[in-house]
Amino acid sequence: MGGGGTLISVYPEELTFLFELDKPCYCNLKVVNNSEHHVAFKVKTTSPRKYFVRPNANIVQPWDSCTITITLQAQKEYPPEMQCKDKFLIQSTRVAASTDMDEIPPDTFNKEIDKVIEEMKLKMLKNASIEEIQTIQRLKDERDTTLQQNQQMQRCAQEA
């Protein structure tokens, strides 16, 4: 289930990057318009130099969706404890059907008395390195092998 307010939902709710040194890594998000209105959204981050967000703002037609690609720039070193403190916020608001996607007015996301701006924070999951993913996979394989051996021993014990 994707998180969101009444206007949009975002899938997945967490950003996960497969982290490799000196290589950019990507994460796709799907923004779904849950209404019969045209909805503009804008993605903000606490580290705009570290990420490319395309598109970082767009208009989604009623009941339609849009895919956002977030690219983490190539990093020269691992983050401490592989934890990422960066944050992302998606703002959304209803706009007129005539609003041009290429020229979303700059005041669209200004909070005014008669305008509702929904905000949704995205969680950043721990960055996983290839080594960590391989270790997790190896541990899962070992667990599965051990479970199979236990089942085999139980069958042998029942037959004896």
Task: Describe this structure as you would to a colleague.
The protein is of the alpha+beta class. The chain folds into 2 domains: 3-126, Immunoglobulin-like; 132-160. The protein is 19% helix and 38% strand. It is built from 1 helix and 12 strands; from the N terminus they run ββββββββββββα. Strand 1 (3-4) and strand 2 form a beta hairpin. The longest helix is centred in the last third of the chain and has 30 residues, at 130-159. The mean pLDDT is 85.
Shape: elongated
Which runs of at least 5 residues are low in confidence (pLDDT < 50)?
Answer: none
Q: If helices are DSSP runs of H or I spanning 4 or more residues, what is the number of helices? A: 1
* CATH C-level label of the largest domain: Mainly Beta
Question: What characterizes the major β-sheet?
Answer: 5 strands, antiparallel
Q: Cα distance, first to last residue?
A: 49 Å
| CA gyration radius, whole angstroms | 22 Å
What structural category characterises the helix and strand content?
alpha+beta
Helical percentage: 10-25%
CATH superfamily of the largest domain: Immunoglobulins
The CATH architecture classification of the largest domain is: Sandwich
Find the count of extended strands (DSSP E, 2+ residues).
12
How confident is the prediction overall: mean pLDDT? 85
Strand order of the largest sheet: 1-2-5-9-7
Domain MSP: 7-127
Family: Belongs to the VAMP-associated protein (VAP) (TC 9.B.17) family.
Protein name: MSP domain-containing protein
Coiled coil: 122-156
